[in-house]
Amino acid sequence: MKKLFKFAPLLAAVALLGQGCIIQFNNAGGTDGGVWRSSDKGANWAQKTAVLSVGGSRTMNTSNILSFVSDSTDPLTVYVATDASGLLYTVDGGESWSQPKDLGSAKISGIALDRKDKCTVYAVTGGLAVKTTDCTRTWSKIYEESRTGVTFTSIVVDYFNDNNVYLATTKGDVIKSTDGGVSWATVTLKPFNSPANKLVIDPFDSRIIYAGTKSDGVWKTTDGGANWVDLSTGLAQFDGAKDFYDLVPDTSKQNGFVLVCRYGLLRTADGGATWAKIPLVTGPGQARIYAMAMNPKNGQEMYYSTATVFYKSNNGGANWTTKRLPTTRIGSALLVGGNDPNTIYLGTLQVKQ
User: Fold this and answer.
1) Secondary structure of the chain as H, E, C letters
2) Rounded to an integer, what is the distance from CA 304 to the centroid of its chain?
3) Which residue of 58, 72, 173, 191 sits 20 to 30 Å from the alpha carbon of 342, by its own alpha carbon?
4) How far apart are alpha carbons 221 and 226 in whole angstroms?
């Protein structure tokens, strides 16, 4: 039986998230963290961590970056989710960053943008899903998880019908709203066997959604969440393929995706029915891949990072060139610029000992 939840249209953001106006950055592990940017496809890097502030200069050079989300309507606008520095965004390609005061230093597990309205942004932090409709000035709670210990891991918005919003949970559920976050219903008939770590909407058909789970492989729906299919059959031949790290769509061709997993990198050209390995410099399972990205206009240009090394291929993984990361931290997130494939953003993460 599906559960239905409703909330009041607006709630005071400060009340729901506490005292969020103080920027608190994690100072562990030196000052070479935050975001780095390359303007020449990874040959050279510059740290881009200046945070705009009324009270004086600030920096996020010690921040831990979890993910990037780019604004498809504005290539210079990029949002960043961090583990202890809240949400940050740039409107000038990383030259400067801003931080919405209401989200403070919360851990942001996911960010989603409404393609039809650039001022509408969603985020998840802990067991809360929040939304802004005024370009991050104010935020309101749209959903709160009632189950103890259950948090949200991912949020996505349907680009065709922006009333459809999806949440993934550490319980293995997918929860859907069809009215922009006013009401919610669980759409997985039964929870996945492990946490749903990421949701990915197919770039060519928004009814198709992929759910990557922590250790139960990848699942797929073709009807907006009503029914889900386990794609594990095609992954069975690859040891560690069900231990999910990321799923990256190849936006240059339909049904193309790259799965980042404990095995390494796997490619599908048929929406997950079959998978083929992408040859790497290291053997299967030998190096943990922390981040992967592709040129959105040319899926043959691929990048990934391990704990210390940045890898680049111009021919779909047939050959790779390597370069040490410009930081002592792990390369935790990668993003290729939308209109400028020469631009790459690198997010960094300090692993806690």
Assistant:
1) CCCEEECCCCCCHHHHHCCCCCCCCCCCCCCCCCEEEECCCCCCCEECCEECCCCCCEECCCCCEEEEEEECCEEEEEEEEECCCCEEEECCCCCCEECCHHHCCCCCCEEEECCCCCCCEEEEECCEEEEECCCCCCCEEEEECCCCCCCEEEEEECCCCCCCEEEEECCCCEEEECCCCCEEEECCCCCCCCCEEEEEECCCCCCCEEEEECCCCEEEECCCCCCCEECHHHHCCCCCCCCEEEEEECCCCCCCEEEEECCCEEEECCCCCCCEECCCCCCCCCCCCCEEEEECCEEEEEEEECCCEEEEECCCCCCCEEEECCCCCEEEEEEECCCCCCCEEEEEECCCC
2) 15
3) 58
4) 7
Q: Which two tokens stand for residue 319?
A: 């050959």
* Paired tokens of 43: 């040959």
> Which tokens go with 149?
């210990």
Tokens 């790259």, residue located: 258
Amino acid at 26: N
| Cα–Cα distance measured from residue 8 to residue 16, given in angstroms and rounded to the nearest whole number | 13
| Cα 46 to Cα 295: distance, rounded to the nearest angstrom | 20
pLDDT value, residue 338: 76
Token pair of 305, please? 């990072």
**Two tokens at 180?**
């922009």
Nearest to 58 by CA among 49, 68, 66: 49
Sort residue 263 into left (φ over 0), alpha (ψ -120 to 50) or beta: alpha
Residue 55 phi/psi, 5-degree rounding, is: -85, 5
The list of the chain residues with pLDDT below 50 reads 1-28
The Cα 263–Cα 288 span in angstroms is: 9
pLDDT, tens digit, 9 for 90 and up, residues 288-336: 999 999 999 999 999 999 999 999 999 999 999 999 999 999 999 999 9
End-to-end CA distance of the chain: 43
Q: Is the pTM of this model over 0.85?
A: yes
- Supply the pLDDT for residue 8: 40
What's the chain's length in residues?
A: 353
Question: Tens digits of per-residue pLDDT, 88-122?
Answer: 999 999 999 999 988 999 999 999 999 999 999 99
